[in-house]
C-alpha cells in the first residue's frame, strides 16, 4: 500500500506512538505528584516521590510484585526487564524500605521479594492515586471519550 507523501514534518510530533508516550509520562507524573502529597504514604517515600526520585522503573515493582511475594526472575519477567536490572531496582527499593528479601518456603536456595508494611502502604497509595488520576482524565476528556480510549487501548494491547 502506497502512503501519501507528508506535506510537512508535523507527523513526527503528532503520531499515535508519540502521543501515547506523552500521555503515559503525563499520567505517571500526576500519580507521583499525588503520592508525594498523600498523607498515608510513609514520609520518606513521599519525599522520594516529591523529589522525583521515584521513576517508572520503580513503579514496575509496585505494578508487578505479587502481594504474597515473587522470586526475582518472576518479577523481572513480569516487568519485561532483565534479572540484573530488576535486582538493582530491588536493591534500591529494599534500601528505601519498600520491599525485603526473605527465604522462599518452597525452595531453601531461593529468595522471595515481599512488600514491607511501608511497601504495602505505598501500594495502597499507588492504587488510590491511580484511581484519582484516572478520574481526572475522565473529567478532562469526558466519560465517553475516556471509555473509547480505554477500550481502544485494551483492544490494541490484546487485553
Would you write up a description of this structure?
The chain is mainly alpha-helical. It has one domain (about 30-155): Winged helix-like DNA-binding domain superfamily/Winged helix DNA-binding domain (Arc Repressor Mutant, subunit A), CATH 1.10.10. The protein is about 65% helix and about 10% strand. It has helices at about 10-15, 15-35, 45-50, 55-65, 70-80, 85-95, 115-140, 145-155, and strands at about 70, 100-105, 105-115. It has a three-stranded antiparallel sheet with strand order 1-3-2. A hairpin with a 2-residue loop joins β2 and β3 (about 105-115). α2 (about 15-35) packs antiparallel against α3, α2 (about 15-35) packs across α7 (about 115-140) and α5 crosses α6 (about 85-95). The longest helix is centred in the last third of the chain and has 25 residues, at about 115-140. It is globular and about 60 Å long. The mean pLDDT is about 85.
Compact summary:
This protein is mostly helical and 159 residues long. It is 65% helix and 11% strand.
